[in-house]
Amino acid sequence: MRPCNEYLDAGGKQMDLLPNSAPLATKLRNTLIRYHGIGESEWRVAKRTKDATVWRKPSEEFNGYLYKAQGVVEDVTNRIVDHIRPGPYRLDWDSLMTTMDIMETFEENCCVMRYTTAGQLWNIIAPREFVDFSYTTSYEDGLLTCGISLDYGEVRPNFVRGFNHPCGWFCVPLKNYPSHSLLTGYIQTELRGMLPQSAVDTAMSSTLANFYSDLKKALKT
């Protein structure tokens, strides 16, 4: 594990700087808790399915939207979060994700991951690459797994480097049905590249709705 904030290659040469994990994790957690407290009146429904509802509001981070998704998932909190956070399960079921590598592991349930996503909307949105700092922590009776992109490492050929502003998933057991969990996500992804905003909005709403249906199928296997 790396408690420090820099990466050294085999010859001891300093490479791209990595963040100091502890303060970044604290700031990220506090940002997500603030999003979780935003009143209902500020959100506008973007999509409804049998598995989830997706809302959106203007992002404070960039010229796009902060999306909120929420739905009940029939499983216990720990197992759901294990399927969402970086690890062996996510790549098996997430239909949008094509590769995932853990680049660095820190203390306190933190890591840096690089992952790629498939093209969307008949490849109007080309494949994207992201490098994210990820942190998982307790929240009330459940868990919060959250992340933010880093400008770290070289961009792979044939990919556009996207950027995730603070995002995360709250997962808490339902009070009267502890075998069921309420999963609430906050996502604000800057896809970058030359894209019409309408295409981005359509893709984000559909991606979040599909996330729930794909996750539920994976948890049943």
Blueprint (SSEs and pairs):
Elements: E1 6-8, E2 14-17, H1 21-36, E3 44-48, E4 53-58, E5 65-73, H2 77-84, H3 90-93, E6 97-105, E7 110-117, E8 128-139, E9 142-149, E10 160-161, E11 163-164, E12 167-174, E13 177-187, E14 189-190, H4 197-220
Parallel strand pairs: 8-10
Antiparallel strand pairs: 1-2, 3-4, 4-5, 5-13, 6-7, 7-8, 8-9, 9-12, 11-14, 12-13
The percentage helix is: 10-25%
Helix/strand class: alpha+beta
Q: N-to-C terminal Cα separation, in Å?
A: 32 Å
What proportion strand? 35-45%
The number of E-state strands comes to 14
N-to-C SSE series?
Answer: EEHEEEHHEEEEEEEEEH
Major sheet summary line: 10 strands, mixed
Q: Rounded to an integer, what's the Rg over CA atoms?
A: 17 Å
What do you see in this structure?
With 221 residues, the protein is α+β, with helices and mostly antiparallel strands. 24% of the residues lie in helices and 40% in strands. It is built from four helices and 14 strands. Strands 3, 4, 5, 6, 7, 8, 9, 10, 12 and 13 form a ten-stranded mixed sheet that branches. A hairpin with a 6-residue loop joins β4 (53-58) and β5. 35% of the residues are buried.
